[in-house]
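Listing S7. Sequence submitted for prediction.
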Amino acid sequence: MSSTWEFMNAFSKLGTSWNHVIGEYISVVQGADGKEMKGDEYVTELDEALNLLQEMLKKSEATSEEDWSFSTSPLKDFGKTTDDILLAFIRWSMVDNYHDNPEDGNSCTLIGGINHPPSETEKINVSKAFRRLTAYQHWMRSVSSDLKDPPLTYLSIKSTLSIFSLHVSHDECERLVWYVNLGKTDLAKLKLQSPRETTRMFVWIAHLLFLDEKAQTKGLVVVDDMAEIGFWDYMTMLPIQVGISVDRFLISVTPLKAKNVVLMHRPKWAEIGYSLLSWFLTKKMKNRVTMVEKGQENYMMTKVVGGVEFVPRDFSDVEGLINEDIIAKHY
């Protein structure tokens, strides 16, 4: 696939159209950071924010049919409580609202830097956290039938996880790093897997990521080795609407704050797709994307995560040194 026209027309063979897909992804990326709105409620302290958000949930339960029990969230698997979920959304709402490069002594020289919370004189937007939390609740409810039987746990998604090559670790600046190694994904097994099971696995991974305190306070980095994957193999990993739904969950529903998205070994079709989507990205979003050229993997990992000592051993062409990542250590 070598031309923009060929790329755009290819979606008709997937039962959709480029206009539909680009429209969906514009909606996804525009919801990534949330918005400040007139009438929003603010506080100055984290414990005040937690108390106010709890009150918002109580009012919502009293005036609507919302269920805030988080019964399908895999909290027990991670030793977390509902308050941990609320804190994740509060921290998402409070970082990077006021400072791009603050001179506060809390610096990181790696690409993307780290999250910076507001200073003591600035306020936490609890209404913004509540809106994001509501989006999370609605999305989780939309797939609740897929998450209940069996309950979402590591053991229930272990076989699906083994099809992929996913690793999680912390980098030199203590940010959480999610490594996605498409080159080592068993595509033959994946095509035999039901979309339900793949969705369950990504929901579990998302909770692993956003319930990590360092991901909340320092930020998240995603390193994706696309391994020159073909268009059809990539686009048929999941039914296209299921794939869009999972991307929406990860990008504009969960309280994940990506500081850097790193793309390695990009196929031509992915370069075309990104160039088209980039017309609709803000400057801030574009600055969060790092392209790694072939032959520059080890060098760029120094700039991205701090060196090979922060990279899993079997990731891509990088000479990583981590033998046991966060998933393996927990389970």
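Caption to Listing S7: primary sequence and predicted structure tokens for the chain studied. The first strand starts at residue 42 and ends at 43. The two ends are 41 Å apart (CA to CA).
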